[in-house]
Design goal:
This protein is of the alpha/beta class and about 210 residues long. It has six helices and seven strands, in the order βαβαβαβαβαβαβ.
């Protein structure tokens, strides 16, 4: 029994994506940094089996363990969504080296860890989808670490596509060009539709980036 696995199921996009895939009858695996966050996300999902685990995306051992917990119960996922990010304002020169390393670890390296852990099994099976939440279509000087991270996400998507795409794994990002807020042009439920659309695309239709703007 495969399903959808969402890493970073906060109250915005992650939770909305979980609900969107659940509406299609897919079992859902949820991973977040804190028990309270993942519990709230699990309570928001209805009608399908749910497995919830906690892990900091920057902790390789914990993240791999949480991924194993979900795949141990559901099998290799049909789709994995990496939605973890460290979003904070910082201008050039404001962050320490460690601050930049911390941001990069969440925004990019956690996605590499997750992909390396689940995508090979998808490739062996011959199908699967790996999606990363992107953003910052244009770099902003007041969001240096986030701008760098989202640029890294675009490059990572290209690299993962080169590695796993030929074996049937659709790798793509969803670029969100604004602050997520219910009832606005950036309503998380509207954004979640991009993830479902990318997952259901036929191979000849594959996109590597979906864009959500105002």
């Amino acid at each position: 029994m495969a399903g959808a696995l969402i890493i970073g199921v906060g109250p915005g996009i992650g939770r909305a994506v979980a609900r969107r895939f659940a509406r299609e009858g897919l079992p859902v695996g949820l991973i977040a940094r804190t028990e309270g966050t993942v519990r709230a996300a699990a309570e928001a999902v209805e009608g399908v089996p749910v497995v919830a685990g906690t892990a900091d995306a920057t902790d390789e051992v914990a993240l791999r363990s949480a991924l194993d917990e979900v795949t141990g119960k559901f099998g290799t996922p049909d789709v994995v969504v990496y939605n973890a990010a460290l979003i904070r304002p910082d201008a050039p020169g404001e962050l320490s080296v460690q601050g930049h390393m911390d941001a990069w670890a969440v925004n990019v390296v956690g996605a590499i860890t997750a992909a390396a852990h689940v995508a090979p099994a998808m490739a062996e099976r011959g199908r699967g989808t790996f999606l990363i939440t992107g953003g910052m279509p244009e770099p902003k000087r007041r969001y240096v670490s986030l701008s760098l991270g989202k640029a890294g996400v675009r490059t990572l998507v290209e690299l993962l596509d080169q590695e796993y795409g030929p074996s049937g794994v659709h790798v793509a990002s969803v670029t969100v060009a604004g602050a997520v807020e219910p009832g606005t042009d950036f309503d998380p439920d509207d954004i979640a539709e991009h993830y479902w659309r990318l997952h259901t695309q036929e191979r000849h239709e594959w996109e590597r980036e979906a864009f959500h703007g105002p």
